[in-house]
Amino acid sequence: MLEAPSNNKLPAIPAKRYFSIGEVSELCGVKPHVLRYWEQEFPQLKPLKRRGNRRYYQRQDVILIRQIRSLLYEHGFTIGGARQRLLGNDSVVNVNQSQQLAHQLRVELEDILQILRY
Questions:
Q1: Which CATH number fits domain 17-117: 1.10.1660.10, 2.40.50.180, 3.10.129.10, 2.60.120.1130?
Q2: In whole angstroms, what is the distance from residue 112 CA to residue 54 CA?
Q3: What is the rounded CA–CA span in Å between residue 21 and residue 7?
Q4: CA-CA distance, 85 to 79, in Å (whole number)?
Q5: What region does 53 belong to: left with phi over 0, alpha with psi -120 to 50, or beta?
Q6: pLDDT at 60
Q7: What residues pair up with 56 in beta bridges, in sequence order?
Q8: Within its chain, how far is the Cα of 106 from the centroid?
Q9: Beta strands in 26-111 (DSSP E)
């Protein structure tokens, strides 16, 4: 079986307010049908739905999807186990999300600094 790449190898999250399902799929290394399935299985994952039932994910949704992906693909949790982990350990999830957000901000600030140096 092919192994999914780790979260460390995923691309940086761009500085955008909303992301389409295709963009989130690329950012998280997960196919769109898997994202739609996860919406049914994880109550925290609720993207905005607009015209034509199109999904629009926000930054915190992308971070949550990366967390779910890590639990399932890297740590070997089942869907039920990952759901319990996310529901039962909100403080752990919040710390992980905060760490990922801080890392993302640092990457973006370093990019801005490099632009300003030129």
A1: 1.10.1660.10
A2: 32
A3: 18
A4: 10
A5: left
A6: 92
A7: 48
A8: 17
A9: 48-50, 54-56
- Residue 54 DSSP symbol: E
Residue boundaries of the structural domains of the chain: 17-117
pLDDT band at 98 (very low <50, low <70, confident <90, very high): confident
Give residue-wise pLDDT tens across range 27-71: 999 999 999 999 999 989 999 998 888 999 999 999 999 999 999
pTM, entire model: 0.69
CA-based nearest residue to 45, from 69, 25, 61, 67: 61
**Residue, of 93 and 102, whose pLDDT is higher:** 102
Place of tokens 């890590």: 70
